[in-house]
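Letters spell out the chain; backbone shape is given numerically. Take this protein:
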Amino acid sequence: MLGTAQILSYIAALGLAAAIPGPGMTALVARSVSGGAVTGFTMLTGLILGDLIYLSVAVFGLAVIAHNYTSLFTLINWAASLYLCCLAWQFWRYQPQAVNIDQRATRKQLASAWFSGLTITLGNPKTIAFYLAILPLVISLDNVSLQIWGMMLVPLTIFVLLAVGAVFILAALKIRHFLTSAEAQRLLFRSAGVIMLLAAIGMVAKTL
């Protein structure tokens, strides 16, 4: 079992890592502004699933394999960086649309938001660094059983990320009325694109 100190340390570390603006939360704000609360929370579920995948990778020891095969780990970093660059380009070229507060998102838009959340997390260097480098320093993974993973770490991860993500979504909805102009939306999405590009550059720089 995990001790109280380890649980609190994990909650604090994960909450801080999630709250620091990065590609994931920046994209979440942008999508919430353009699509509303339902779109934002749908994207958040994709972001959370991506975190759970990396949590599972770290807990079940696959992180050790990744570190032992340096070339494979480098290839993964480069692939993730390339994907972030593609996302950055898409966000930079985003064509602003009129924000209709009462308009409901379509299933296609919700599916796109969910998939974007998942893929952004899987390609997010901040997420990778947390679960493969920081998590082992916070929790002794050798003592984490399947039961602890399923009954403690997964629920805690969902709770923390849902709480942090909800704050970002609600903040985005608060400023949504001020971002109805095309110029304001363009600035928001381009800012998100720049953050993704910087994250990609930082990830490549670590492998050189």
User: Anything to note?
Assistant: Residues 178 and 184 are 8 Å apart (CA to CA). The first helix runs from residue 4 to 19. The chain has nine helices and no strands. The two ends are 39 Å apart (CA to CA).
